[in-house]
Amino acid sequence: MNISVIEQLAACLEKSNLTMVSVENPDGKIVLRRAPSGRPAALPVPIEQPTSEVSVPAPTAEGTKHLITSQYVGFFHHLKPIVGLGALVTAGQAIGMVESTNLQMEIVAEVSGAITDVLIEDGAAVEYGQPLFEITE
User: Fold this and answer.
1) CA-to-CA distance for 133 and 11, rounded, in angstroms?
2) Are 30 and 22 in contact (CB under 8 A)?
3) Dihedral over alpha carbons 82, 85, 91, 95 (to 10 degrees)
4) Preceding peptide of 81 cis, ω within 30°
5) Given a cut of 60, is residue 134 above it in pLDDT?
6) How far apart are CA 74 and CA 128, in angstroms?
7) pTM
8) What's 29's DSSP letter?
9) What share of the chain is helix, strand, coil (3-state, %, to 5)?
10) What pLDDT digit, counting tens, does each position of 22-77 carry?
């Protein structure tokens, strides 16, 4: 995992009201939690070395998890009705919106499944590539 990605996640955590950010990709997993002093603290997570050249996420007992990230920079807004924890969504369904320079761009679910984590609050600043939702198929 690139150190600049970790620094960006820590900065987002520090600027927001979030208490935890978790990101998982083929390179590994990182969990950042807000320390009692208000500064983010990284929790070490063991990284499994891939056994082959192609790394495919293995489905868990609950299903495959997918992070929905922002493709835009701006301010995130939940759509009404709010898509929250446990909500069932379908691929292509609008689940949020990013507003930038008076343009409103939809965030859509890339897969069908259940929302297992909401990683951003309404009105929070969002960066390109920032995780917004976790969906389990």
Assistant:
1) 18
2) yes
3) 20
4) yes
5) yes
6) 9
7) 0.54
8) E
9) 10, 40, 50
10) 777 776 777 776 665 544 444 454 545 444 344 444 445 567 899 999 998 999 99
Burial tier of 119 (Cβ tally within 10 Å: 0-12, 13-18, 19+): buried
Residue whose structure tokens are 């998982």: 24
Provide CB contacts within 8 A for 17, sequence distance 6+: 121, 124
Query: Does residue 115 carry a pLDDT above 80?
Result: yes
With 0-12 CB in 10 A as exposed, 13-18 as middle and 19+ as buried, what is 99? Answer: middle
Provide the 8-state DSSP code for 90. Answer: -
* Spatial contact of 23 and 67, defined as CB atoms under 8 Å apart: yes
Cα 21 from Cα 32, distance rounded (Å)? 5
